[in-house]
């Protein structure tokens, strides 16, 4: 049976004491200072990028998890912090561009190291071409993000204690001012290794207990209140002890333990992947701290020998190239004149062929242009004929209209004449009938 879990990245005290940074000769105080410095970078950059607090908290947890498996001497704390912010912004669905992340870290480095504040040039003097410095920084950011995902097995789920604080305080019935204090303590706890030692429920209980002690708010002890929230008293006391030790430390400053150049302001040397693989080899991690000076001297002597051997090989390769060039030049000089003459004849024949082809092309173009002109003339003649035909049709139609109008006028006159004669005859007939009737009724008239 295979069991898979999401939130299983927790280490013991022994594993933290035997971290990869300790194997590379970095003591506990230096490692703690560098961890706090990296978390400060993540918190400040998140504020400048206007990211929510969840993104900054996730970035700090990813930062601690990565350096539990890798050493500060082999991976730059500045580059890893930038990659954690970039990755966490995508995990918490508040993505930011790589350009903006690099510009923010570049400006923070200028402020922290009291350097003249200069803008990070994204493009070079040539139009639409990225500058070499920016392209190197961006490639390093992407490469570091791949290292983060690889070391975590692409399991980047993070559970923060912040979501438990409100529920715990509401259940205990504490005053409202205790909530903000517990929230601040939870944010500060992310700068320590508590997120990789205890579950978020235990850290939340420890934060609530510390806030209650500071405001002198009593919590129920019979039965103990932490048993309801799946915590133990030893874990709560350890959380409080770690927070008290954090507040007793001064402000963290950058300690250069990385072996290469990790500055955002100057990029003089690009990291060698082969050298990085050599650094990450398990043989280097097993070297004791007492043998480090001898190992460094042996490594420097071996490096000098390798450099000398490489220079000798380069000189020999240059000599071989020069000899080959001289041999080729002598061979060209020793060629027969007959072959040169043949080459010249071939070139002349090719030139004549090209000229003939150009002449044929020009003649074909002239023929095409003539054919186009004749087509245009024929089209113009046809259009003139069509126009004349249309005019003749219009004239015939006008004549027909005139004849029709004349015929209509003559028909109306004949009808009027016919009607007038008919009216007259009817009038005379009516008058005669009236006179006859009068004589009938009045015979003596």
TrEMBL record:
CDD domains: CYCLIN_AcCycL_rpt2. SUPFAM superfamilies: Cyclin-like. PANTHER family: CYCLIN. It comes from Phoenix dactylifera (Date palm). This is Cyclin-L1-1. Residues 40-150, 163-245 form the Cyclin-like domain. Coiled coil: none annotated. The gene is LOC103723507. It comes from the Eukaryota. Gene3D superfamilies: Cyclin-like. One of its GO terms (molecular function) is cyclin-dependent protein serine/threonine kinase regulator activity. GO terms for biological process: cell division; regulation of transcription by RNA polymerase II.
């Amino acid at each position: 049976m295979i069991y898979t879990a999401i939130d299983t990245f927790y280490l013991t005290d022994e594993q933290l004491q035997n971290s990869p940074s300790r194997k590379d000769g970095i003591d506990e105080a230096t490692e703690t200072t560098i961890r706090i410095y990296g978390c400060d970078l993540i918190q400040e950059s998140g504020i400048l990028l206007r990211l929510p607090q969840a993104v900054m908290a996730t970035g700090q947890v990813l930062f601690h998890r990565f350096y539990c498996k890798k050493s500060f001497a082999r991976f730059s704390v500045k580059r890893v912090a930038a990659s954690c912010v970039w990755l966490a912004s995508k995990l918490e669905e508040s993505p930011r561009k790589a350009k903006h992340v690099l510009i923010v870290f570049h400006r923070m480095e200028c402020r922290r190291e009291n350097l003249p504040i200069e803008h990070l040039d994204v493009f070079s003097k040539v139009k639409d071409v990225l500058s070499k410095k920016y392209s190197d920084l961006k490639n390093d950011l992407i490469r570091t993000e791949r290292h983060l995902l690889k070391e975590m097995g692409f399991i980047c789920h993070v559970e923060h204690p912040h979501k438990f604080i409100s529920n715990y305080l509401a259940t205990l019935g504490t005053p409202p001012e205790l909530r903000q204090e517990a929230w601040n303590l939870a944010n500060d706890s992310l700068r320590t290794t508590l997120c990789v030692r205890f579950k978020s429920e235990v850290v939340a209980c420890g934060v609530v207990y510390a806030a209650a002690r500071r405001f002198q708010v009593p919590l129920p002890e019979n039965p103990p209140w932490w048993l309801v929230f799946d915590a133990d008293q030893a874990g709560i006391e350890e959380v409080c002890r770690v927070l008290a030790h954090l507040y007793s430390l001064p402000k963290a400053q950058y300690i250069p333990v990385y072996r290469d150049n990790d500055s955002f302001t100057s990029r003089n040397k690009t990291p060698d992947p082969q050298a990085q693989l050599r650094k990450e080899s398990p043989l280097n991690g097993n070297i004791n701290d007492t043998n480090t000076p001898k190992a460094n001297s042996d490594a420097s002597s071996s490096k000098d020998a390798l450099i000398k051997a490489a220079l000798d090989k380069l000189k020999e390769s240059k000599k071989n190239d020069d000899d080959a060039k001289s041999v080729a030049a002598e061979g060209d000089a020793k060629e027969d004149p007959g072959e040169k003459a043949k080459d010249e004849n071939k070139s002349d024949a090719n030139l004549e062929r090209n000229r003939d082809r150009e002449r044929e092309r020009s003649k074909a173009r002239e023929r095409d242009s003539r054919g186009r002109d004749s087509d245009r003339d024929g089209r113009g003649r046809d259009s003139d004929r069509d126009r004349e035909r249309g005019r003749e049709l219009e004239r015939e139609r006008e004549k027909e209209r005139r004849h029709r109008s004349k015929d209509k006028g003559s028909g109306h006159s004949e009808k009027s004449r016919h009607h007038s004669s008919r009216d007259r005859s009817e009038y005379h007939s009516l008058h005669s009938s009236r006179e006859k009737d009068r004589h009938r009724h009045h015979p003596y008239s």
